[in-house]
Amino acid sequence: MVFENEQVRVLRFTIGPHEKEPMHEHPALVAVSLTGGHSRFTLPDGKTRESTLKAGDVNWGNSEKHSYECLGDNPQEAVLVEIKGKLAAKAPPVALDPVKLDPKHYKVEFENAHARVLRIRYGPRERSVMHEHPTGLGVHLTDGHARFTFPSGKTEELHFRAGEVRAYPAGAHLPENVGDQPLELVFVELKARPATKKPVPVPAAKKPATKKAIKPKSRRPRARK
Q1: What is the rounded CA–CA span in Å between residue 102 and residue 123?
Q2: Which pTM was predicted?
Q3: Given Cys at both, which of 50, 71, 77, 153 links 34, Cβ 3.0 to 4.6 Å?
Q4: What HEC string does the chain produce?
Q5: Nearest one of 218, 155, 146, 135 to 182, comparing CA atoms
């Protein structure tokens, strides 16, 4: 497991040539192939389907139980982003949508009720315009060095490694590839709200027991003889 929070669980999946995984189950997920490969899925009823992917391919998987077999002669590696939390009644509006403002660098791979998945590509020294994202995850397909400028004017530089996964908070920024090589990543914008936990009821404070006041016994005066 790479990491887990209230919205996602991120797994790094690796399998050797011609190896087979036993029957297991996943919730709905986004799968990003890091190596590509040819594979076979077998369902509990015995039905099978085969898949051939290239490095960098991304696809959606519904909740499913299956076994998995690598049919190729090379190992396979993928990042699996399992979706948690409850679906938002309506996705929060994004005023500065990068797909509309900068279609050169941002393309929609697919979108559903759970997530919008973008493919982001920058050439060497290319920069974007100010835009925003909801909470999301970046699966970096190349090494890279980027500078982010925020609306306040502050800047931050980050270095990435191919295959690295990073969580990004919601917000606006202007990215720039400050490296000499192309930069590419798959960005998963999340629509699910974090699963809310019911507050634990706090027991009412007990009132301290009140002691009954003890009346002093009245003494009758003794009769004089």
Answers
A1: 14
A2: 0.83
A3: 77
A4: CCEECCCEEEEEEEECCCCEEEEEEECCEEEEECCEEEEEEECCCCCEEEEEEECCCEEEECCEEEEEEECCCCCEEEEEEEECCEECCCCCCCCCCHHHHCCCCEEEEEECCCEEEEEEEECCCCECCCEEECCEEEEECCCEEEEEECCCCCEEEEEECCCCEEEECCEEEEEEECCCCCEEEEEEEECEECCCCCCCCCCCCCCCCCCCCCCCCCCCCCCCC
A5: 146
Per residue in 137-179, pLDDT tens?
999 999 999 999 999 999 999 999 999 999 999 999 999 999 9
The whole-angstrom separation of Cα 8 and Cα 198 is: 19
| Burial of 121 (C-beta count, 10 Å sphere; 0-12/13-18/19+) | middle
What does the chain come to in residues? 225
CA distance 16 to 28: 24
Q: Taking Cα atoms as reference points, which of 75, 68, 56, 88 lies closest to residue 15? A: 75
For residues 86 and 198, what is the distance between their CA atoms, to the nearest angstrom? 14
If we measure between CA atoms, which residue out of 37, 15, 29 comes closest to residue 139?
A: 29
